[in-house]
Request: fold
Amino acid sequence: MKLTDEQYEIIEQASKLLPKEILKIDACAGSGKTYTLVEIAKHNMDKSFLYLAFNKAIVTEAKQKFPNNVKVLTTHSLAYRNIVIPKFANAEIKSDYKAFDLKELFPDKKYEELSFLLEEFRQYITSDKWDCHNSDLKIFMRAMYDGKLPLTHDFYLKLYQLSKHKNLEVYDYILLDEAQDTNDVTLDIFLDNDCRKILIGDKHQSIYFFRGAINALDKVVADYNMHLSYSFRSTQPILDKANYFLSRFAKDRDFIPMKCFSENDLKKEHTHCIITRTNATLISVINELSDKELALYKLIKDPESVFALSKNLYYFSTNKKKIQNNYKWLFNFKKYQDIIDYAEETDDKELLYSLDLVKEHGENIFSIEEKAQILYHRTESKFFLTNAHQSKGLEWDSIRLCDDFSDLKKDYANLCKSENRIQSGKRANTEAKKIAFIQEVNLYYVALTRARHKVLDLSDNNKTYDSYLIRADY
Reply:
């Protein structure tokens, strides 16, 4: 792939970094973020690099791309090497705790109290905080530390963040990819050392706030701030549409319009994906596929997670005993109508669409899930189904966006109205609405930029938009 002038400038600046200095790169969709990091490493073969990855799949892929002066690890594997192996070699490790797991440690507490304690635990171990002031939380963590209870992966990561000796001095550089979707504990590990630091990501692809992710690109104050604004993926008309929505609604003062690097390199159309905003619409799409179409498509997302909310809503309305542990929160509602009222009041799109789905299909949801299992286990296909969150990091020659994405113009107008009549008591609620709106803008942008060549947008909400053609710098 031919390097752009922006990439050459970034490589040059990265090579000049001094210990402790930070280079921040805000890179648009399809701009070759990881490729740029690879080129930085190749241009500095006399230096050692640590590339921090989010999960094992990224590690496997990254190891095939980076030269041998780069060590590729997940933050958890880094913590495992430095905490678990030397200090907890024989420790049992589990993924997560449920309230009933703590009953023996806190026999006098109700399950509701233990659930709150676990939520505080999750908030603490993903934060950059050093001090913990909750006495029950200290008892729980001490039990894990002393081997009375199994460790969790996030707990030993927290222990690593709190450790004074992280053994990072062996690296000249630390690289943090996808910096827009990290968390405070990982960011603190990344920053708390004397290495040269490079973080890269796309601030507008921050879509996991609901999972507690933070946008490090907005949070970190860097010595050098640079951009990648050329997309190697999408045609200019697709980028123009994305430019319009980001410039109008994301309120990014430093927004740089995206430009197509070379439309001549785009492949002929041959792969296609249908992308939904919600899991519920994904279920509806599967149900509407003809037998001929069912034989062609592959579902990317695990049906278990796609159908979970809708199935548990159905259980709530028919047989509450079947409700799964992760959906015990439904018992906060006395009756089904209370859930409907809550969904409408909070404008929870996933919940609203799932409620409609249950109302329309009822028990038929389970037969649709059987179809989904077949699509999910299909090994090869050129036609795909997924939702917007799961589409991140993927690309196809053409996509079809379904009609459940937010009406961004309408939502923005409503947000402006609420800000104009803001009252002191509702300030926090307005701020939450603002964050939720930006997440919807980002999610639409992510879905839109999965396409290399063609986008069929079925959403009347965002199908039409004002002209946005800034080509002076192209």
